[in-house]
Amino acid sequence: MVKSMTGYGKSEATVGNKKITVEVRSLNSKQLDLSMRLPALYRPFEYEIRSRVGKAVVRGKVDVFVNVEATSAAQPVAVNRELFKSYYETLRSLGEELHCGGEGLDAALMAAVLRLPEVVSSEAPVVSDEERDVLFGAVDAALTAFDAFRVQEGRTLINDLVARIGKIEGYRREVEPYEQRRVPVIKERIRESIASVGIPVDENRLEQEMIFYVEKLDITEEKVRLDNHCRYFREVAAGEENVGRKLGFIAQEMGREINTLGSKANDSDMQRLVVMMKDELEKIKEQVLNIL
To answer: What is the phi/psi pair of residue 2, to 5°?
Structure first.
């Protein structure tokens, strides 16, 4: 099954008072180029996430975003009671000595002490086994959506490529009438050139040389090889996985045969068809770069 290297997948999952969001995006690349953004809380699981993404993605420039947010405002905190009392009593005693404060002194002291270092601290977050499993499940769900996107895009790409292969085959068939027509034209052109010089020639020898020259312009082998390459392109596209590189190689071989057709054409109408084949082939090469 042909897949595009361009893909997108997203999933969300909840565990306790947390919502985990995972996004996977990719563009074409010759190798696997993986970039990840994880909350510090999930850094211990980076290797496992990379492993799962690498197996599913295979190749491409991939960005993975993992985000976690609390679904409620509640967050466990710890108050250092002894330190709070020490700060509070010291500041209150100082305020009384300086005769400052009044009715709002207690409230002001409470607010000030709570902002002092190490009085209030959040409890260190701990990732439970359940949360870890939910995280991995969200990663797998995002990768499943990502893969489905790639398959859909790949189907669109391969349909376009096969259609362009069909155009190349059509142009190749259109070459045949011009191929037969050009032989007497070439011979007549040679005779006219010799006649313009005014040098007497041996007709038998001239005919032999023209036959030899025309044989060099024969394109039967190029047509057969080009047909075979087009047929093989279709077979690979229909029956294999991760075919991007192989299709690229086949396209290169098609280009060689088309170029040889052009060099042997010696006919303006054939050259026009060769140019049209080259145009379709360049579009194929560009699209193949987006196939996994």
So the answer is: -75, 135
**Residue 89 · residue 45 · CB < 8 Å:** no
* Six-digit token string for 165: 């292969």
Q: Is the dihedral of CA 177, 179, 183, 186 positive or negative?
A: positive
Characterize 236-257 residue by residue with b for buried, 16 or more Cβ atoms within 10 angstroms of its Cβ, and e for exposed.
ebeeeeebbebbeebbeebbeb
Given a cut of 90, whether residue 276 has pLDDT beyond it is yes
Contact present, 36 and 46 (Cβ < 8 Å)? yes
* Cβ atoms 281, 168 nearer than 8 A: yes
Residue 114 tokens read as 């709570």
Is 274 in a helix, a strand, or coil? helix
Report which of 60, 107, 116, 127 is spatially closest to residue 87, judged by C-alpha positions. 116
Quick check: 33 and 150 in contact, CB under 8 A? no
- Residue of 78, 48, 39 whose CA lies nearest to 139: 48
Model pLDDT for residues 2-37, shown as the tens digit of each residue: 889 999 999 999 998 889 999 999 998 888 999 999
DSSP code string of 184-249 = HHHHHHHHHHHHHHT----HHHHHHHHHHHHHHT--HHHHHHHHHHHHHHHHHHHH-SS-HHHHHH
**Cβ atoms of 1 and 290 closer than 8 Å:** no
pTM: 0.71
Judge whether residue 197 has pLDDT over 80. no
Q: Which two tokens stand for residue 112?
A: 């000030």
Share of the chain above pLDDT 70, in %: 87
Q: Is the backbone of residue 102 left (phi > 0), alpha (psi -120 to 50) or beta? A: left
Element spanning 133, H or E: helix 129-197
